[in-house]
Write a sequence for this structure.
């Protein structure tokens, strides 16, 4: 059932109007775990002495220790104390603390705080220490990431900073005070360092391993143990998420007798992320690049076919785009261009004409976020093909990074707005 439905179970127990011992409170948490079936355990206690305002947290920690000893699943434990006397318990409880909002005429329960009040108190108490983040790359003065991530931290009242780190050599960065600072929380990684950073990390996620590139460094540290540096890749999510939405809305126009296919243009690291995303979308893959060996590398890594040209047919080659589509009974549902905007790429006219004759219009995804309009996007827009721009990929991958670093939901609308403010032509800056 867990694989089929997103619902999760929270075991909850409230003690109203009476005190309980620490042993009893710990037992309530254990009971709320539902023998490993619950995804979270919530216990709400009552006290009459403010010196006991830590009871919910300490007994939650005891319950977690018992779960570890028993080999039970470790789930979030939410520990609160009722009333104004228990307000401190809301400050020190980190997962899923109930909050009110400034706009509401009254609080839902005595002692509730707004999210802003809660975060401000945690900052004063040092519960949420400031961390340093940044984007590592070279010749990256154009980057929108500092504005996007900075706005996200400000919106969520997190005390973190995000810097632009322009360095030609990765070794210079890993020997810098920034990388070795105890407050270093992680970083974004962009060209030309996505592969060069890998030897300096302790672990790679499955996506980073398969794609062969890292765009996100995450720092994990527990107590006095040495920090663990984890490399991940959210570029593929920046491609997967918008395409998943577009393809879902267009599914009724698919030819069920055809094989859904992605045409991937280019051969660099972003093309590898595109191939990974296309695989996750369940699409077959056709690659085209002016350097055939790079396209072949993609096919070797992710499966698929290399097109020698984008022609419909050729007298001396059976590997044209048209011949591959015919041989595989393929239907191009997505075109992902990772080519630079300066290449001025456009799809061949025969492909446009044949596609317009059918009910299905392929999604055209251009990973460039500047300029806002590339030749490919103009061409696709003129014939009514659905579009995805690189600006959407930018905020989607950034949302993924924020959530990996902080463990909390990103302010999606804020991050999207910042990106569009930086990418939209002036006459189009209207996205409310």
């Amino acid at each position: 059932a867990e694989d089929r439905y997103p619902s999760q179970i929270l075991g909850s127990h409230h003690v109203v109007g009476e005190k309980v011992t620490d042993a009893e409170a710990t037992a309530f948490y254990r009971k709320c775990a539902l023998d490993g079936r619950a995804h979270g355990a919530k216990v709400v206690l009552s006290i009459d002495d403010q010196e006991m305002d830590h009871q919910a947290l300490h007994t939650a920690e005891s319950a977690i220790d018992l779960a570890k000893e028993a080999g039970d699943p470790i789930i979030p434990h939410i520990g609160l104390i009722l009333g104004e006397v228990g307000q401190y318990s809301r400050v020190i409880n980190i997962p899923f603390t109930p909050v009110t909002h400034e706009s509401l005429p009254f609080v839902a329960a005595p002692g509730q705080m707004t999210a802003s009040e809660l975060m401000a108190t945690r900052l004063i108490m040092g519960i949420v220490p400031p961390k340093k983040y940044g984007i590592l790359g070279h010749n990256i003065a154009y980057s929108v990431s500092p504005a996007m991530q900075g706005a996200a931290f400000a919106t969520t009242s997190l005390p973190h900073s995000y810097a632009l780190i322009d360095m030609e050599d990765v070794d210079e960065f890993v020997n810098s005070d920034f990388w070795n600072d105890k407050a270093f929380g992680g970083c974004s990684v962009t060209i030309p360092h996505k592969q060069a950073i890998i030897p300096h990390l302790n672990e790679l996620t499955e996506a980073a391993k398969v794609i062969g590139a890292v765009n996100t460094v995450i720092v994990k540290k527990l107590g006095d143990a040495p920090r663990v540096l984890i490399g991940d890749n959210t570029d593929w999510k920046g491609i997967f998420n918008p395409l998943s939405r577009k393809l879902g809305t267009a599914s009724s126009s698919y030819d069920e007798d055809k094989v859904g296919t992605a045409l991937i243009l280019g051969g660099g690291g972003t093309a590898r992320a595109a191939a990974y995303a296309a695989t996750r979308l369940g699409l077959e893959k056709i690659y085209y690049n002016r350097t055939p060996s790079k396209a072949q590398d993609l096919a070797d890594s992710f499966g698929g076919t290399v097109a020698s040209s984008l022609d419909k047919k050729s007298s001396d080659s059976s590997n044209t785009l048209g011949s591959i589509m015919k041989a595989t009974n393929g239907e191009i549902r997505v075109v992902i261009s990772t080519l630079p905007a300066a290449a001025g790429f456009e799809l061949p006219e025969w492909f446009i004409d044949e596609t317009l004759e059918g009910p299905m219009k392929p999604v055209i995804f251009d990973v460039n976020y500047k300029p806002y309009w590339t030749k490919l996007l103009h061409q696709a827009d003129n014939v009514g093909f659905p579009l995805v721009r690189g600006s959407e990929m930018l905020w989607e991958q950034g949302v993924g990074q924020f959530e990996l670093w902080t463990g909390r939901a990103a302010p999606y609308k804020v991050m999207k707005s910042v990106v569009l403010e930086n990418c939209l032509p002036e006459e189009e800056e209207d996205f409310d």
Summary: The chain has a mean pLDDT of 91. The chain is about 40% helix and 15% strand. Residues 26 and 62 are 7 Å apart (CA to CA). The first strand starts at residue 10 and ends at 14.
